[in-house]
Design a protein that fits this description.
Layout lengths: L6 H20 L4 H5 L9 H15 L13 H4 L17 H21 L5 E3 L9 E3 H27 L12 H16 L7
Antiparallel strand pairs: 1-2
Helix pairs in contact: 1-6, 3-5, 3-6
């Protein structure tokens, strides 16, 4: 019988899985579709990856005194505070942003490997009451953050080309899905004229 994974190993596996899912949502798309905003607030696939690059670099690197060997221009010029971490500029290629994301994840993985879950640190930009924290809390934070944005990416990808994380054909063919959609629409329509 194989030994059971430790809590740290399990957490790391969840984080790796969410990262892989995020990268899979970008795979096979045209450059335009990776970049184009799909919501009124501008949410786009490459922007989500760019945003997570900052999170990986800082929450699982810098706050432990483990500065990455690279710089993130949107941090250096403070444009992050105007949302620059949430979209790709014309001069930021997919390769450039994915290389940064892979480097940030590799750097984060080395932090996770070298420290215990209880390793203390401080996140200076957090509220004072929560500022002092541990690797375990920050890993949980990264799992939640990456998974949340993976959910966004799932919806964006489906809106772009209909691709979903699982194979919709496992539940039914196109006709089945149209019937299913009509059933949900019909249920929602019963509340169309309700005031609240």
């Amino acid at each position: 019988m194989a030994p059971r994974a430790t809590l740290k190993e399990s957490m790391h596996n969840y984080l790796r899985g969410a990262r892989a899912g995020m990268l899979a949502r970008i795979d096979g798309l045209r450059e335009y579709d990776r970049r184009r905003p799909m919501t009124p607030t501008g949410t786009n696939l490459l922007g989500l990856v760019k945003h997570l690059t900052f999170y990986e670099s800082y929450y699982l690197g810098s706050v432990f005194g483990r500065e990455p060997e690279w710089t993130l221009p949107w941090i250096e010029d403070d444009s992050i505070w105007q949302g620059a971490d949430l979209w790709a500029t014309p001069d930021e290629t997919t390769t450039y942003l994915l290389d940064h994301y892979h480097a940030a994840c590799t750097h984060a993985d080395s932090t996770i490997a070298e420290l215990d879950l209880g390793a203390p640190t401080t996140v200076p930009w957090w509220q004072e009451a929560k500022r002092d924290t541990t690797l375990g809390v920050l890993m949980t934070h990264m799992i939640a953050e990456t998974s949340q944005h993976l959910g966004h990416a799932d919806i964006i990808r489906e809106l772009i080309d209909g691709r979903t994380a699982s194979d919709p054909a496992e539940m039914g063919d196109a006709e089945w899905w149209q019937t299913y959609h009509r059933k949900i629409t019909s249920a929602a329509d019963t509340f169309r004229d309700h005031p609240s």
